[in-house]
TrEMBL record:
Name of the protein this chain belongs to: ABC transporter ATP-binding protein
GO MF term (any one): ATP binding
Superkingdom classification of source: Bacteria
Pfam families on file: ABC_tran
Keywords annotated in UniProt: ATP-binding, Nucleotide-binding, Transport
Domain ABC transporter: 2-237
InterPro entries in alphabetical order: AAA+_ATPase, ABC_transporter-like_ATP-bd, ABC_transporter-like_CS, P-loop_NTPase
Amino acid sequence: MITFDDVVKVYPGGSTAVDHLSLELPTGRTTVFVGPSGCGKTTSLRMINRMISPTSGRVLIDGEDIAGRDEALLRRGIGYVIQHAGLFPHRTVLDNVATVPMLLGRTRRQARTDALGLLERVGLAPEFADRYPAQLSGGQQQRVGVARALAADPPIMLMDEPFSAVDPIVRAGLHREFLRLQGDLGKTIAMVTHDIDEAIKLGDVVAIFRQGGVLAQVGTPRELLESPADEFVAEFVGRDRGLRSLSFDTAADLPVRPPAEAPGLVLDEAGRPIGWRTGDGIHKIATFTSADSLRLVTDLAITSPTGIAVRVTEGGTADGIVSHHDLVDHLAGRKKK
Ligand SMILES: Nc1ncnc2c1ncn2[C@@H]1O[C@H](COP(=O)(O)OP(=O)(O)OP(=O)(O)O)[C@@H](O)[C@H]1O
């Protein structure tokens, strides 16, 4: 666990970048620091590897104040990924990843073999290994940056806006890979972003900062969406937070009615939905299973030409329907509980 214990950082010139921060980052989990520009996210992150030292207060790793730790040893256990990847431009991709393990005493051969394995883990084909960073796309460079930070197998990873320099489609791919990789590796990760959607998607814990380096709220994404502490947090997580919080609930408890009650639902002989019959022909149908989120079900009901979403079994047979009226009733009842 990483602990911020009443940490203050005042830069020379008097600006308070971090104001009495007390926060715990659980081991093996991703904690995301999010907030508007200049609210002290990067400063807080860099205090974990002592690139910046607190003006007062302590940062502890597993209960030990890092101020007393040897800096080089401390950083060996902490990977660091930054925006634009920060790769060595005159070294090949493979050497970028292999450099740190070599510095740590691995043989060149072993380090290069490990590096190839890491590149594969972050989704880069071996043919990229001999290229130089400038010959890669932004998303590919970012993957190399992640592989390089993982090369020394540090238990802690600091990531400062790692995915912000790429376009939304590439970013969505990197997010999926991040979640898969973190699912396998279970590192203790502190990540900075200014994008609340990214924070909610990737964070187990999200810490929202406000101007002046003050922690506005810390909690799970669900807690932040369902019970924002104040107006600032409510505004920051977005007006559509109610709808977004439906992503965290599955349709498992959603009451459904028999498919036969849906006018215009066309099924094949096996009972699998084919489409909606309306005045102008058969419309494509999208379905959900009980494992899908209430957000998806709501979306399906709203976009369906009949206002009805159809549930299917794992085998694809229609086994229930829910209208948007049913959904509203269910959501209203759920809120009262
Ligand atoms: N080296 C420095 N000297 C003086 N002031 C600094 C220094 N670094 C940062 N600051 C100030 O401290 C405050 C917090 O900066 P920090 O970079 O931690 O914010 P941030 O939330 O990461 O911002 P951004 O999202 O824009 O990167 C800002 O007001 C910034 O101007």
